């Protein structure tokens, strides 16, 4: 087991190294001066001091300097605002992860039971309606759906707010970047009111992000349940006189879920992409919103850092889910190689 | 009284070519305390009979029978709950492919312990019950001839050899102390010594516990050494059934004779290097079933009347369905 974990760690470190190399080459590929692109500082002397290299440093020693700077969180400054990029990322990445997490949670909480119900009684009206609904959900483009939600629930019905994470008048100080944690940590505010307000802000973005993941999940779980319930060991369990509930809970569910985890690992990329699209529509102060602003303003150091951070987050999440799926699936042999 | 009594069991399968009778008026009865063998070629519907008895047929299969009773109670009229109760207490099934019949994500020990009926466990706290379950499970595993109980019970199905899996399936079947054990080809792919062990175990259980066994298979030598009676199935039709001694000595149906003749072990008079007698042709596919007696096109005694399904006739407790049986003078 330790060996497998070490292998995954090795994979994680190497993949992150490749991402850092890529972000370093972006410094050469973007228009403008390499040193400026890597640090965000206008004057070459300042940039050299920031990177701690001489002016005659070659490609390789420049990379070593950039690499060690990246590791200690010296990611350069924004060429527009002059703020350190690392702290800006630290402010906006939690918002993205938070939205992604709640969307995934909603998709799992709704998607798994729906998929199970559909898969256990195939070709019945319940199955057909769930399948039909998931097909409809799957065909919505995220950006269009988010705009329709804004139009209906924010503008016409005025039920839910259309931008931000929490009412600005509440003045929640940022500590961790996760809004609910921050509300709990904050003093001098009406926590109950803030909580409800944050939930209201969260509702529409979460719903619009999670719908596609939910639809994918429903279809995958239904298919997998259908396959598993036909397996000889389910028939054998029936002939041992176990009740349908026992069969499903003890033998069906677990085996149906095993192939779902790798699918979830693949869905993380789609999910983060959708989160970033939805963020800019709801002015959610996350990575997507921030990265889009950076692109508009041609803030090359910020674009480079944003890519680095998002790619890193996606890789870490994917590998975590991979490890989880490896841990729960006994039929995957110990000597299997790891891969993402 | 017969323990399990099935008369005119017809099982139809919905295919692209319409409904096909995979089992056509099959008869089978297992008496209390006997070992009954169900013999037939591959594809003759042996496993389908097993599926029909154990219930839970897929929706594309339709089952009808004149009579299908368990200790006099009509199995067809029962609801799912009563049927389940019988499968849990009285009938146990060992399926053909042991490793596919075990849940791949649960250890073997857990699967075996789960099958222990709660009335065997006694009263006590749940950890005491758990301990008792474990004790019963280990005892059973030893009984079927697995020595390394700790290793096997903590293993997952993909980690064990298939003959161990087969023995383990038998242990799982015996855990509820059933009255009838249906063993679907339980010795397939086993080496000779293991096979003998299993057959001896069956025989012992039959003698000491009066366990009735429905032994499904095509190993005629094993069957003739342990069974009391035999039912021969051809292409979904039961052609002949009766006490095994009588069937061996004086088979009435041409198919039974061909089947017995094809096994050299039964032919003491067989000279060396002489060709074995076989029926011409092969067993027909389900899409091209002959009408009437399904053996018709392959039978050397077939005549015009054979396009009608022969009725079941009997001489004492020897049943056969043939218009022109062997050893009679009406042909």
How would you concisely characterize the structure shown here?
The complex is a heterodimer of chains A (340) and B (331). Chain A is mostly helical. Chain A has 14 helices and no strands.
* Number of structurally distinct domains of chain B: 2
- Mean pLDDT across residues of chain B: 84
Strand content of chain A: under 5%
Low-confidence stretches of chain B: none
- DSSP helical segment count of chain B: 11
Tell me the span between the first and last alpha carbons of chain A: 18 Å
Question: What radius of gyration of chain B results from the CA coordinates?
Answer: 21 Å
Under CATH, the topology of the domain at 94-298 in chain A can be stated as MetI-like fold
Overall mean pLDDT score of chain A? Answer: 86
How many alpha or pi helices of chain A? 14
Structure description:
The complex is a heterodimer of chains A (340) and B (331). Chain A has a domain at 94-298: MetI-like fold (Orthogonal Bundle). Helices cover 73% and strands 0% of the residues of chain A. Chain A contains 14 helices and no strands. The model of chain A has no long low-confidence stretch (mean pLDDT 86). Chain B has two domains: 2-90 and 178-320, P-loop containing nucleotide triphosphate hydrolases (Rossmann fold, 3-Layer(aba) Sandwich); 98-177, no CATH class. Helix content of chain B is 31%, strand content 24%. Chain B contains eleven helices and 13 strands. An eight-stranded mixed sheet of chain B has the order 7-8-9-3-10-11-13-12, with helices on both faces. In chain B, strands 1, 2, 4, 5 and 6 form a five-stranded antiparallel sheet that branches. The longest helix of chain B is centred in the middle third of the chain and has 18 residues, at 126-143. The mean pLDDT of chain B is 84. At the A-B interface, helix 10 and helix 11 of A face helix 2 and strand 7 of B.
């Amino acid at each position: 087991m330790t060996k497998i974990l070490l292998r995954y760690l090795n994979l994680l470190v190497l993949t992150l190294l490749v991402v850092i190399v890529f972000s370093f080459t972006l410094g050469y590929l973007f228009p403008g001066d390499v040193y400026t692109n890597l640090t965000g500082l206008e004057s070459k002397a300042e940039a050299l001091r920031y990177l701690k290299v001489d002016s005659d440093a070659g490609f390789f020693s420049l990379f070593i300097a950039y690499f060690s700077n990246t590791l200690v969180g010296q990611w350069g400054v924004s060429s527009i605002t002059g703020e350190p990029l690392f702290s800006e990322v630290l402010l906006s990445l939690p918002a993205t992860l938070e939205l992604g997490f709640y969307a995934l949670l909603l998709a799992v909480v709704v998607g798994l039971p729906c998929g199970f119900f559909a898969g256990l009684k195939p070709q019945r009206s319940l199955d057909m309606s769930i399948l039909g609904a998931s097909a409809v959900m799957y065909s919505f483009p995220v950006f269009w759906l988010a705009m329709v939600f804004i139009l209906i629930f924010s503008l016409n019905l005025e039920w839910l707010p259309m931008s931000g994470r929490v009412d600005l008048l509440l003045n929640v100080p940022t500590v961790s970047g996760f809004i609910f944690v921050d509300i709990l940590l904050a003093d001098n505010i009406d926590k109950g009111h803030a909580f409800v307000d944050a939930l209201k802000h969260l509702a529409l973005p979460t719903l619009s992000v999670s719908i596609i993941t939910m639809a994918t999940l429903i279809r995958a779980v239904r298919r997998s349940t259908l396959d598993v319930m036909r397996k000889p060991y389910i028939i054998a369990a029936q002939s041992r006189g176990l009740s349908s509930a026992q069969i499903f809970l003890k033998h069906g569910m677990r085996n149906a879920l095993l192939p779902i985890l790798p699918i979830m690992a693949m869905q993380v990329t789609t999910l983060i992409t959708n989160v970033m699209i939805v963020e800019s529509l709801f002015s959610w102060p996350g990575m997507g919103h921030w990265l889009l602003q950076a692109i508009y303003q041609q803030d090359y150091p910020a674009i480079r850092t944003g890519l680095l951070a998002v790619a890193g987050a996606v890789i870490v999440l994917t590998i975590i889910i991979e490890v989880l799926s490896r841990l729960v699936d006994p039929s995957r042999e110990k000597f299997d190689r790891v891969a993402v | 009284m017969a323990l399990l009594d099935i008369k005119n069991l017809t099982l139809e399968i919905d295919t692209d070519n319409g409904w096909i009778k995979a089992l056509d008026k099959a008869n089978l009865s297992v008496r209390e305390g006997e070992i009954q063998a169900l013999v037939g070629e591959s594809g003759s519907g042996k496993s389908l009979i097993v599926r029909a008895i154990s219930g839970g047929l897929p929706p594309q299969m339709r089952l009808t029978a004149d009579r299908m009773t368990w200790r006099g109670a009509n199995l067809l009229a029962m609801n799912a709950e009563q049927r389940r109760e019988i499968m849990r207490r009285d009938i146990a099934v060992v399926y053909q492919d042991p490793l596919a019949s075990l849940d791949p994500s649960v250890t073997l020990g857990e699967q075996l312990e789960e099958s222990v009926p709660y009335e065997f466990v006694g009263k006590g706290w749940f950890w005491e019950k758990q301990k008792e379950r474990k004790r019963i499970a280990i005892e059973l595993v030893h009984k079927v001839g697995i020595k390394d109980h700790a290793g096997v019970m903590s293993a997952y199905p993909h980690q064990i050899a298939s003959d161990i899996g087969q023995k383990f399936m038998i242990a799982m079947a015996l855990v509820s102390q059933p009255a009838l054990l249906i063993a679907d080809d339980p010795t397939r792919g086993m080496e000779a010594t293991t096979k003998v062990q299993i057959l001896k175990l069956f025989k012992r259980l039959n003698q000491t516990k009066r366990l009735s066994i429905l032994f499904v298979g095509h190993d005629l030598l094993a069957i003739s050494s342990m069974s009391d009676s035999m039912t021969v199935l051809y292409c979904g039709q039961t052609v002949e059934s009766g006490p095994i001694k009588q069937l061996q000595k004086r088979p009435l149906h041409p198919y039974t004779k061909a089947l017995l003749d094809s096994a050299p072990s039964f032919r003491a008079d067989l000279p060396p290097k002489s060709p074995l007698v076989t029926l011409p042709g092969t067993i027909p596919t389900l899409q091209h079933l002959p009408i009437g007696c399904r053996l018709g096109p392959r039978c050397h005694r077939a005549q015009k009347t054979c396009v009608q399904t022969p009725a079941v006739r009997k001489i004492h407790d020897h049943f056969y369905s043939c218009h022109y049986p062997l050893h009679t003078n009406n042909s």
